[in-house]
Amino acid sequence: MPALCPRARPARLACLLAGLGLAIPSAADASPGLGGTRNLGMGGASRASTSGAEAMLLNPANMGFTRQLEIQPAYQVNIESNTHGIGLLAMDSLLNERVALGLGYISTIGAPKVAYVDGKGDAQKLTMAHGGHEVGLALAINVVRGWLAFGVRPKFQSSVLRFRDTDGQRQDARKEQLAFGLDLALSFSARRYVTLSVVGQNLVGPAIPATDLNLAPYVIADGSLNRARVSALSDYPRSVAHGLAVFPTRKPGFSINFDGMYDFTSYRADNKYTRMVFSGGAEYTIRDAVPLRIGGYWDSHGRGTDDDRGYIAFGGGYFASPGKGQVGLNFGLGFSRQITGPSPDTVLALTLGVLLNPNR
After folding, report:
1. Spatial separation of the C-alpha atoms in residues 149 and 99, rounded to whole Å
2. What are phi and psi of 45, to 5 degrees?
3. pLDDT for residue 257 is more than 90
4. What sign has the CA pseudo-torsion 27, 29, 31, 37?
5. Phi-psi region of 57 (alpha: psi -120 to 50; beta: other; left: phi over 0)
6. Sign of CA dihedral 338, 339, 343, 344
7. Could you tell me the pTM of the whole model?
8. CA angle at residue 59 from 72 to 160, to 5 degrees?
9. Are 32 and 159 in contact (CB under 8 A)?
10. Residue 81: CB partners within 8 Å, gap ≥ 6?
11. In this structure, are residues 112 and 130 in contact, taking their beta carbons and an 8 Å threshold?
């Protein structure tokens, strides 16, 4: 954990492992294309135990919980909706024991399809273009070393959902979003046994959801539109989340995690309904080098139980710490599969981070 990490080298190595990874947008709601591989493998339950570069996406307060300099490229794919996320994250907490800085870019490229019956009674399919860009600058401050950390992440984000009409012209299926966003986070650690975190994401600049699609000038027969692969969720919802991480051995490589998230944007039009997501996950690291992860979560989506979804997840990786003046490796894989509810999703994620140690 943060400056919550002990100074001993083996424990610090285990602590660094918590930063592996990148991915599930529906659990983390970090971005429409990328959410964190470690987070994906733990079913979205990683906010309180995350650290390093991935903490930029989920809980910027935790960036300084490890002393490292990392450059982390990442890739994620949602197979059913044909949506891809590519990201590049860089984080440095070596310059100062109390301050950590991070810079990240994420691009989303998707081609989900809708099906419908046209005015002539013929079945049709239309491929949409779902795109997004996000640039964020994160700052973490260890207010009370070993106990309390604060994080802030201002960012610029854009999101579009488009299609081409019968004349080949681009049309917006929902309003394009161009906005500045802001994430705030706070983490409290009790003697490295327990960490509690609270994270507010997109407190300004949330994106409207794709609840109703404007597909004019196409003629669509009433009730025939099948938009199962175009999510009704907001790409950037205004949300508040809490996380609890328990470390039975007081080492960051072994943790049990529970998270909850409240989305105030995606179903706000439905009489101010709040979407809720609850998740649980665990991580166990073998020989301070091979993390094994498992988790799952439940997503309420809209009112009622018809669109509730349940997921299982798992992941792993490999970590090689850099010696003085050397380069280390941070490799991670994540997988998530929806097992209950409509329109099942399968998400895969891969990250290959480079750790630098300029100290000689």
Report:
1. 10
2. -105, 75
3. yes
4. negative
5. alpha
6. positive
7. 0.88
8. 70
9. yes
10. 110, 112, 130, 229, 230, 231, 345
11. yes
